[in-house]
């Protein structure tokens, strides 16, 4: 009798820049509301950018500031696994990228891709063990610079990291805030390391995500390799337009 293997359920992934838990221009602290909204999506893996790790001064001034680092507060009991990559360190705190997962994160590494200047950027590489999936799933949370010249170099560093750290046959998901308003990343990533952007592949163009109230620029992306995607969506303005200045992206990934 031949053994049959049940198909691996698809992964729902989400990416959003959370602006350290504040509304635009830092007018209001909305991290608890943001946590509720992220929970309702029910994603298996969440890619977060601009996540506050610690901040001693704000923690004393804001009544509902959590005691735990923000990635732990957001993960809570929904995502038992999380990883944080600290990109920016200042006297009273730090912030960076984070990945929250319902599946075991067996290893992670944060790569500093900062270039000379005030911007500090990182690539957080996590390796996930998904039940029923014979190969570990590699996830890279991205936040690239505002400068075009910096992004060009950071994309090269991302490609080199994929070549050196991700097996050619392993499922790979790369998501985050690329700040790529000139839409130059797609051609580079597909040509150099075979990554396909899920909105471009499905609809013919990347998603408009910024500013979230009236999205004009395609800053946020989800790329895959050795995986397929089903109906990626930009989450609606309500409630997201007051929770982040970037509209979140969600996609169903088939391994």
UniProtKB/TrEMBL annotation:
GO CC list: membrane
InterPro entries: Endo/exonu/phosph_ase_sf, Endo/exonuclease/phosphatase, GPI-anchor_lipid_remodeler
Family matches, as SUPFAM superfamilies: DNase I-like
UniProt GO molecular function: catalytic activity
Organism: Ramlibacter pinisoli
Domain Endonuclease/exonuclease/phosphatase: 14-246
Protein name: EEP domain-containing protein
Membrane-spanning residues: none
Biological processes per GO annotation: GPI anchor biosynthetic process
Pfam hit, one: Exo_endo_phos
